[in-house]
Design a protein that fits this description.
The structure holds 2 protein chains of 2 kinds.
Chain A: H1 5-30, E1 45-47, E2 53-55, E3 63-69, H2 76-91, E4 98-104, H3 107-113, H4 115-122, E5 127-129, H5 133-142, E6 147-151, E7 159-163, E8 167-170, E9 176-180, H6 186-196
Parallel strand pairs in A: 3-4, 4-5
Antiparallel strand pairs in A: 1-2, 3-8, 6-7, 8-9
Helix pairs in contact in A: 2-6
Chain B: E1 19-21, E2 24-32, E3 41-49, E4 55-61, E5 65-72, E6 74-76, E7 79-81, E8 88-90, E9 95-98, E10 103-110, E11 119-126, E12 130-139
Parallel strand pairs in B: 2-12
Antiparallel strand pairs in B: 1-2, 2-3, 3-9, 3-10, 4-8, 4-11, 5-10, 6-7, 11-12
The chains are: A alpha/beta, B mainly beta.
The structure holds copper (II) ion.
Copper (II) ion (CU) binds next to strand 10 of chain B.
Chain lengths: 197, 153
């Protein structure tokens, strides 16, 4: 395809706009959420291991500890889920007011490998959700998180997932409260939760 | 087959054993229990180079997995990925840790599920020091590392 001069300019403008939008998305991720700002309420509609559709409103009144990951992940995901499990144990009775959710970004394979067995091995309270590609993408976009499939011949099934490794805290009315960056010690997460419960 | 290689009743604190090859000492070799054998396992270890020559860990081998390899978890722009690590530097006079959230051995194609208390051998290949085989202790799903008496784990 040969482009005329004006067409080239248009394509260049479109490219620049895409880049600018990309930059905006990247920086908006990091923007601190101030109290003055309108509440950020992410949403999701995803089936649990039994196929029941779950949405944020199902958990109204509880704090949600949310993690996006995949069960074939040997390093980052177990470390974070182990911390969540520790936090749930340490919360004692207050654990009834906290619901940990694990959202699969590799849903097809995770359902095949067994999502419930995976989450239960860490803690019985962790609920795993795995939708179809579209539901998963929508949930991730709503939380402003990124994930990507990378082809890798040496990886199990020939691909690897990369994803945002943070843990997100959602309040009892559905407001996004904060994120805990990967590696935040369980004790710090616990202290933060206890100050809110 | 692997049951002959896996010691099912490992003595306590296997991971605290220290193995040496040349100027290198290798310790805190541990793995995390897996849920079944269909998902990859992980291998963590600490290498100290007491010599005056830089070395590097360039490969791992184990009968516990069909395709063991070295990886590094990197978080770039808020995204965690696990590229292959062709070589993990072990500079002279320094210690290098394969630990959660960083370098790790990825044990793809597990021969059998790894259960807490199991142990299995891993052979580490260093660029200069050559090979050394260590016993890897399988810790619980929630473990963050072995609990050893001596300092610095
Ligand atoms: Cu890996």
């Amino acid at each position: 395809m040969r482009l005329t001069g004006p067409q080239k300019i248009l394509w260049a403008a479109a490219g620049f706009a895409a880049l600018a939008y990309g930059a905006l998305m990247v920086f908006s991720d990091r923007a601190p959420v101030s109290v003055a700002q309108a509440a950020f309420r992410p949403t999701f509609t995803l089936p649990d291991a039994e196929g029941r559709l779950r949405t944020l409103s199902d958990f109204a009144g509880k704090h949600l500890l949310m993690f996006f990951g995949f069960t074939n992940c040997p390093d980052v995901c177990p470390t974070t889920l182990a911390e969540v499990a520790q936090v749930m144990d340490d919360l004692g009775e207050e654990a009834a007011n906290v619901q940990p959710l694990f959202i699969s970004i590799d849903p097809e394979r995770d359902r095949r490998l067994g999502l419930a067995a995976f989450t239960a091995a860490f803690h019985p309270t962790i609920l795993g959700l795995a939708g179809d590609a579209e539901q998963t993408r929508a949930a991730a976009e709503s939380f402003k998180i990124n994930f990507e499939r990378e082809e890798d011949a040496a990886a199990p099934d020939g691909y690897m997932m990369s994803h945002s490794p943070a843990l997100y805290l959602i309040g009892p009315d559905g407001d996004w409260l904060r994120q805990f960056t990967y590696g935040t010690p369980a004790a710090d997460i616990l202290a933060d939760l206890q100050s809110r419960l | 087959m692997l049951s002959t290689l896996l010691t099912l009743t490992a003595p306590a604190a296997f991971a605290c054993e220290i193995f040496t090859v040349g100027d290198l000492s290798v310790e805190h070799a541990w793995s995390r229990a897996t849920i079944g054998a269909d998902r990859p396992g992980v291998f963590y270890v600490e290498v100290t180079n007491a010599g005056t020559t830089d070395d590097a860990l360039i490969g791992i081998a184990t009968p516990a997995a069909g395709m063991p390899m070295l990886h590094e978890t990197v978080v770039t722009n808020g995204i965690a990925s696990m590229p292959h690590a062709m070589s993990i530097p072990v500079p002279a006079g320094q210690s290098v840790k394969l630990a959660p959230g960083g370098y790790h051995g990825m044990l793809t194609g597990l021969t059998t599920a790894l259960n807490e208390g199991d142990s299995f051998p891993v052979t580490l290949t260093f660029e200069k020091a050559g090979e050394v085989t260590v016993n890897v202790e399988v810790l619980s799903l929630r473990a963050e590392g072995p609990d050893c008496e001596h300092a610095g784990q």
